[in-house]
Amino acid sequence: MSSIIYLDNNATTRIAPEVLETMLPWLGAEGYGNPSSAYGLGRAAAAALEVARGQVAGLAECRADEIIFTSCGTESINTAVQSALALDPDKRQVITTAVEHSATIKLCEHLAQRGYEITWLPVDSSGGLDLEQLAAAIRPDTALITLLWANNETGVLFPIHEIAEIAGRKKVLLHVDAVQAFGKLQLSLGDGGIHFLSMSGHKLHAPKGVGALYVNRRTKFTPLLRGSQENARRGGTQNVASIVGFGKAAEFAFGHLGSRQIMEWRDAFEDHILSEVPGTTINGDRVRRLPNVTNISFDGIESEGALLLLDQHGICCSAGSACTSGSINPSHVLKAMGLSNEKARASLRFSFGRFNSAADIQQVCSILPGVVEKLRSLSPAGTPVLAA
Ligand SMILES: Cc1ncc(COP(=O)(O)O)c(C=O)c1O
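^ thats the input. predicted complex w/ pyridoxal-5'-phosphate below
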């Protein structure tokens, strides 16, 4: 196998060279100071954190003092939700959706065990939400609405600014899991009525293990990790090198938000596969979605087998979300959109990124149809029944 064709950028991304370069001084002999220390070595680290905070805030279009650095998107989500619940112990309902990332699902399941009522809003066949249903679900005891901006499996976008308008009208707190949207879309947080928003570095070419939480400056906040760092909003000595890298990645992403290259690769790939491989369906709204991802069902195959065969060609993609791959359960996202178990298990997610090339797309377009054909010929039924 000569080289890898990495089409799993929603799972994680390669650290960009300019990100690594910015990080290195903070890992070596010159830059290891504790940002809380008063001497120069520490002050330099603290100053580097503030540069990164400004870069992350720049991409989110919010104020730098509204950004708290965390260890990952999952920590940001847990912090936001627990902070909202701490505000009023009488508010016992949490509204979320059936298609969230496992970070939110597991947390909400845990809250349910602790006596909270979780309202899981359904989605339609294209992965969209019914906003009237969302508004109707809000009650006097609603503590929080927590939902995705962009779905990690299908890329489908929820209309967050409209949802923020509903939350504002009904005076309910809103947390947005923007882990997949951050760096790919213009978020324009401004003062748009979002109270909390979670981000993660490793989806935009920064390292794993660094994240951020936006907390609107007028929103009351209770830390999850107690300590003096981050203005006593998140205890724990900051991961300076990774935060600096996250800032650099955010700066790069901000400068390239208008670029259409990745979307053009995705669209060219989709067009080719739809025309060359019969029995294929794109899952999710094809317009309101992230520019870099496509989720495709191939009738008559099992995605696990496809992953193995593609891996033999050096092609990395995923079946469902990375956090649940390895299990043979069909994706809860595709199930919530009404796909049968069979069709959900026959789906693959391809997520493109800036380090792909036109040659990668051509290569995958030439290999994938044969892989699907091979799997279909091996399927127990012999010839698969292809959807009309
Ligand atoms: C939508 C979404 N939310 C949350 C997370 C968790 O982020 P992290 O891996 O930084 O904890 C992910 C990661 O896959 C994600 O895709």
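The mean pLDDT is 95.
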